[in-house]
Amino acid sequence: MDLATNPFKPGAGRVPPVLAGRSDLLSEFRTRLYQAREAGEGERPWILSGLRGVGKTVLLNQLGRDAAELKLIFVKVEASSSKPLAVALAKELHLALRRVLSSSDRAKALWSKAASVLRSFQIRVDPSGTYSFTVDVEPERGVADSGDLAVDLQELLETIGLAARGANTVILLAVDELQEASSGDLAALNVALHNLGQDVFPVPVVFVGAGLPSLPAVLADATSYAERLYDYRQIGLLDTTATSDALTAPARANGVDWEPDALAAAVTATGGYPYFIQACGSHVWAVRATDTISLQDAQIGIESARTEVEQGLYQSRWERATPTQRAFMSAMAVDDDAPSSMAELVTRLRKKRTTDLSVNRRDLIRSGHIYTPERGFVAFTVPGMADFIARQGE
Ligand SMILES: Nc1ncnc2c1ncn2[C@@H]1O[C@H](COP(=O)(O)OP(=O)(O)O)[C@@H](O)[C@H]1O
Ligand SMILES: [Mg+2]
């Protein structure tokens, strides 16, 4: 009888049916992009930070759609520890320029210098890469090819930004998982953005980076002035109203309503965690038998969502960890989802000093289980991990 497809979208980066609780942030950003285009001038770079599964990637993608609607150019890359940031940037900028170059003769004239500079940048950072434009593009020797990434990136963004200004548009440059970039790459990025922002009339390039809550500290470690360079926004859990919206609006759009007690149970169970909201919505949707979701439907759905999330999110992390790493995380779980002090963990694990724990700490950070919210502390990257671990001991 159920012909309506499940509107909920559990899973990393999947566009939620309703992007709940983020409208203030989105409309502020949209206004800034609009102003950047009208003035032909850049904006302070933004950093969005938050735990895994709170919705940073979907926010970046929504910013990209908003930008496209304003006829801006959206370029997005994902930083990773296995690939230099410059290579990822060269690739995506190439695709974006390739598109504008082929759009019209006027565009070709406006963007050809930017394409030449990108070419010289690319030859320097990724000599073996294969990049082709639909028209011949000769590298602009001596620009953006010094080998000093900070200088080259600045020259590249400046040239592309000037072209964007001429074309009455803005480049929105987004980097997801920015904490994964090497410290050298981050330092170069900071320097380049800092210098671009100091122009009398900064070019219309708007940068937005997203990553784990450690990102502000990671950037500050790369260069001291990073604290003042970026506009930092924390992306947190959703409040009760937004959580209700996220669960009810997609259902209502498909002719289904929640009984008040069913909704209350689901809102409480999800704790406002967007990843879990989608999982819960999806499972409850699947078990309901009519166009009204009862408390019993909700309870069954919540339980199966919990089992799934537990396996996908927590169990897999737990199983990948070594016995000593598990002991380390169990000692952290005592603090629930709050950060744990390294000094306190030393006592709990009956060690002498914090250096006795540095190998576990480093490996758990590398594998993405934990991060450093501030010096001397560690915390879990996914909400609810502590609770899961506490239940393992039983
Ligand atoms: N504001 C929101 N409202 C409803 N669902 C959301 C929201 N933000 C994210 N989600 C959902 O949460 C999940 C995780 O989103 P994602 O962007 O991958 O998180 P992150 O990048 O922070 O790890 C996805 O299933 C997505 O659809
Ligand atoms: Mg993400």
Automatic annotation (TrEMBL):
Organism superkingdom: Bacteria
Domain Orc1-like AAA ATPase: 19-207
Annotated InterPro entries: AAA_16, P-loop_NTPase
Pfam families assigned to the protein according to its UniProt record, in alphabetical order: AAA_16
SUPFAM superfamilies hit by this protein: P-loop containing nucleoside triphosphate hydrolases
Protein name: Orc1-like AAA ATPase domain-containing protein
Family annotation (Gene3D superfamilies): P-loop containing nucleotide triphosphate hydrolases
